[in-house]
Write a structure and sequence with these properties.
Layout: H1 2-23, H2 32-48, E1 54-58, E2 66-72, E3 77-82, H3 86-90, E4 93-96, E5 98-101, E6 105-108, H4 123-126, E7 140-143, H5 145-152, E8 159-164, E9 170-175, H6 178-185, H7 188-202, E10 206-209, E11 217-222, E12 227-234, E13 237-248, E14 252-261, E15 264-272, E16 277-282, E17 285-288, E18 290-292, E19 310-313, H8 324-338, E20 349-354, E21 359-365, E22 374-383, E23 388-398, H9 402-405, H10 413-417, E24 421-429, E25 433-440, E26 447-452
Antiparallel strand pairs: 1-2, 1-9, 2-3, 3-4, 5-6, 6-7, 7-8, 8-9, 10-11, 10-18, 11-12, 12-13, 13-14, 14-15, 15-16, 16-17, 19-20, 19-26, 20-21, 21-22, 22-23, 23-24, 24-25, 25-26
Length: 453
Amino acid sequence: MINVIRKLSILSLLVLMFGCKKENDRVFEEEPSERQAKVIDKLYTMLTTSENGWKVTIYPKGGKGFRHWMKLKSNDRVEMVSDFNVTSATVPKESTFRISALQTPTLIFDTYNYIHLPYDPTASISGGTTNGTGLLSDIEFFPGAGLVDSLLKDLPVSKTTLIGKYNGNYTIFEKATAAEEAAYKAGGLDKTRNNIAAFISTTPKFLYVELEGTQKIQFNYAATTKTISLSYEKDNGVVTEGPATFAHTLNSLKLSKALKYNNISFDEIFYDEATKVLYILNGSNRIVVKGTSAPILPLHYFLGSTGYMNIVAPDATTYAGWSPDFMARRAQAVTSLKNGGYNLTLKAITFGFNRTLKTLTITANIPQNTTNYNALFYLNFEKDANGIYKFSKADPYLGTNGGITETGLAPIIGNRILTDKFVIEYYSDPVLGNLGMFKSVENPDFYFTGTIN
């Protein structure tokens, strides 16, 4: 009888245990829809109760970096400035936003504002390389699990990351102070842009930093692509750290990732308005960005890499760093193309390098009356340890319009570029800055320059 009672007791306990589990087998107390509504409400409250707005930094997958200041208001409107261009940095603009329950609570900037500029599919607006994709930026964002947890626990949030819905860009939101709000609305981002542009224009063109000891580390700054990298010589070659993209702040360039050299690492470059210099902080120690008129590293180390893809000889009869022989040969080519049966006019010639494939593409701009055309020539190259180039015909060699212009351009391409060896180095002009120069080894009286991009 005791065994029967014991068995009945155990059975009752099991029923009770499983019954309890059935009542409490949900992870959350609320239904999913209730939980999502709560997150939406708390996210909205977090964003709209930041008294002085938010500093929002995004580094799109398509390149560059952007700093926005925005104040999201309880009437579903948002005021915004951005370092995208002069107008966006100086003229606050209002639009609307909403937070909707899509697959997850999502912050949506649903009418056009400055945050849409890098997202815009039109390449001429966004600065993207092709139409249809923009810079692969984002205009809709959802909170990560850490932020959701903080919101549900009513924890204070002064800095967090939201994730772009379409392109997955991690976007940093930081609360702004009253002083920062005033500075952003007064055009502070444009002031930073101008200060740094002035520093670059007045500093000798070859920038460097001395991070450890006295070795000069080349500091590569590119305003067009908003990138910074470091380059230094090692083991008879060049090592490049980066590039990192950057966004302007009120007094610095904030990098998308840290740049490192041995034991020094930094992700921000500051501007000191009093001394008008750029500097890096290593702990409390300032490392100032300096400039010199002499190259830190030879140009051939960089040809064919980002920012050093092309040397463009302009449409001119004379130019800084052009030899009499080159000018005479160019004039000969101009006459030959004009009288060669197609009435072509020789304009700029672009020498496009690809160091990975070891190729040079020569693109001659040859409009016919009011219709624009280009002639293409494909070359391979070899480069020795001293940076001396030897070019040869690729297969195919003649591209679009190459056949009808080969003879006309022979004084430059066929009779010099393809026959001689070349040193390609910097040429510094007091007005034009640093140019790239081709100089023949066999015929040193043949040399010419062009802009580097």
